[in-house]
Sequence to fold (216 residues):
Amino acid sequence: MLTIHAADVLLPGGGRAPVPGGAVAVRDAEIAAFGRYEDVAAAHPDARLRRWPGVLTPGLRQWHGHWLLTRVYHPDPREADELGTAPISGPAFDALAPDAARMAGSVRRGIQRMLAHGTTHVGIGARPEVRQAVARAGLREVPNAPLLAPPVWDGPDLDPFVEGHDLAGTVHGPLTVGQPADLAAFDVTDETGLLAHGAATCVATVLGGRLVFRRR
Fold:
């Protein structure tokens, strides 16, 4: 199956210029082509089309996946009346002292919330339950990530741009034909808008060619 992901602007990374009306063709789990939509579609006339608003980029890299999954509690929606919906960290996390069962649920929800921020690559530690959950989700490991060091930001933040600062510092790498199709789409007009509004504007995340998140 070949799918074309198209958006108003393609930001391919690697210092390459934005491509207005850009697209990425995905065959199975890999990038088959990218560039102007007209050129990609002409080369792959039988492909299924998924069109996203805004910009399309490589998937994002979350350096502090380990910290966000082991030292942060992601409340269940059923706990909203008691705990709210925001991630819980620091002294509040210590006071909550979630047991293993609650943390297992938190890890699953944390991963889903990372995917909802365009994250495809994470730094993870050695805890088997975390590694298993990340592997099941298909997320890719960031090598040599600062796993145990506290993040530079004050408090939990699922937005990789908080640590990466710009597109070059946040995407996992530039789009490359033959590499895994890890993509993210954001409902903003351009790179400036993406940096201003952050990864919470994500509308879709593609991981190894699979659509793993779509904002309805």
In short: The chain has a mean pLDDT of 92. The chain has two domains: 2-59+172-214, 61-163.
